[in-house]
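We store sequence with structure; for instance:
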Amino acid sequence: MDKKKHITNGLRIAQALASDYISIYYVDIKDDTFIEYRSTDEYQELGIEQAGENFFEVSRRNALRLIHPEDQAAFLRAMDKESLLHALEGEHTFMLNYRMMFDNEPKYVQLKASRMGDGDERHIVIGVLDIDELVQARETLQRIRQEQATYSRIFALSGDYICIYTVDLETGGYTVFSAIQDYEDLGLTRNGEDFFANAHRDSQKAVYREDLELFQTMFTREKVMQSIRETGIFALNYRMVVDGKPVYVCLKAAVVTENGSEKLIVGTTNIDAQVRRDMDYARDLSVARMRASRDALTGVKNRAAYLDVEAKINRRIRDGEQVRFAVVVCDLNNLKQTNDNYGHQAGDQLLKDACGIICNIFKHSPVFRVGGDEFAVISQGQDYENMDALMERMRRSNARNEASGGTVIACGMARYDHDSSVAAVFERADRKMYEDKKTLKDD
């Protein structure tokens, strides 16, 4: 084929494919020879012909050198000779989008292969088109649509956003992406040139006075960016003044990259209802826990609370910690007789009186009602150091009350002495309590 015919074929090929080609290959599929036509930036017309052999092998080598690593596998599969000819049998045209590297920068291109037609079964034409601007434009449009859809969904689902800022980290300039009426009513600036400075200024009228110091201390460029570098996000809960009332809000900030520059996205959401629900729940939970751990009659802690404290001390013993405590076991005398002779109301009062005596003597220790007429004390600290004097006070109280017909309480005490558990100390104290009960009855 002479040069004139090559050029004619090239022009016909270029017209058939597109005007934005980078290269066009005229390939003989019988012997794999090819002619390449290249465009020039200046004239956008066919340039110098380059002929060669082993087209598919050359394409494979060029792919490993020029195509983005993530797209090489797809290209090599498509440009296998048998695979390409098979694709052309069905559709007569085959297209593949991928990225080529130009000056170490990826650019989207499209490979378009087709048969020549006009009865020419021996040749195929393959064009490589520059579609980078088209792809970038589509991606930009898609990203904008996705952002619009995302923010629309956020507002539709929550309705709790007060404002969303977009901040240019290089200049400090900012705009409000969107805001609801709560934000409008605050009278804050919607755009400006120094985001953090203006945020501190606006906080004087927007942030609840008790949280103002917290906001101004924490919401600085340095602390926001440090948190984002370390955790990926900055978050701060505080109260804003809305309609003259404090409203809990959550401010979150993160960095995104747009068009090669970093933007700070700052959103403030209304979490007042959630925070107040959590506060109510915590308060209700605290009350429930207190009730669950308290004896309803006497007001001291119950057996469940005792077991909880016992478990904690047992863990410390197992961990080899140095623990110093004593267990006092107390048992009320004559409760059954009081119930039988005077009724349960009188018996309940006797239990309350006994509990009052124990609490008054062991003022710095938790007191537990662990049975019907049985109490336990776990003493540490000050009461532990004065344990002998406290037990003497209990003996004197019993002597006075026994003489006057008052409340008598049998007591036994044992100190922890390298025991395996709290239960072992309790058992020794319990045995001493029964000894004391026997002594009181004998007297």
In short: The first helix runs from residue 3 to 17. Residues 14-18, 40-48, 153-158 have pLDDT under 50 and may be disordered. The chain has three domains: 3-132, 158-276, 294-442.
